Amino acid sequence: MIVAENGLVTLPSAHDVATTVDRLTAALGAKNVTIFARIDHAAGAAGVGLPLRPTTLLIFGNPVAGTPLMQAVQTSGIDLPLKALVWQGVDGVTHLTYNDPAWIANRHGVGSDVQQTIQALSTAMVGLARHTTSAQ
Predict the structure, then answer these.
(1) Which of 44, 86, 90, 110 has its Cα between 20 and 30 A from that of 14?
(2) What digits encode the pLDDT tens for the residues 43-94?
(3) How far apart are CA 127 and CA 123, in angstroms?
(4) Collapsing DSSP states into helix, strand and coil, what is residue 57?
């Protein structure tokens, strides 16, 4: 797992893009997390005659988890609901990338009063990402 300075967390996947997206979708469904949108960027690019390696964005969330951050600092809503990008690199390896919830909280100056919520979101994202990208 790579956590970049800009808050992006990236994990390589043992699966292709379609399978990784399907695994993430199933994992989110099992946790009763709402998937608000599934955006196939490669299909969009192909629609205008431009090439793009497989790249799919899932936008998902749970108001019980995200609302406390927005109650604390409403601008955090620009980064919520959470998103995960599943993409194929130049080398053919599939990756899953998401914004670290702790980075989102820090970016917006969310106080310690919602630290438990932030930690729960971070833990959930790590678990989902590891499950989704693992060979099992």
Answers:
(1) 44
(2) 999 999 999 999 999 999 999 999 999 999 999 999 999 999 999 999 999 9
(3) 6
(4) strand
Task: Identify each DSSP E strand in the chain by its residue range.
Answer: 2-3, 8-12, 34-40, 55-61, 82-88, 94-99
CATH number of the domain located at residue range(s) 2-133 in this protein: 3.30.310.70
Residue position matching structure tokens 């379609």: 18
Share of the chain above pLDDT 90, in %: 89
Global pTM value: 0.94
Q: Name the phi and psi angles at 81, rounded to 5.
A: -65, 170
Burial class (CB in 10 A: 0-12, 13-18, 19+), 110: buried
Residue whose C-alpha is closest to residue 4's, from 103, 119, 91, 78: 103
Read off the pLDDT band of 2 (50, 70, 90): low
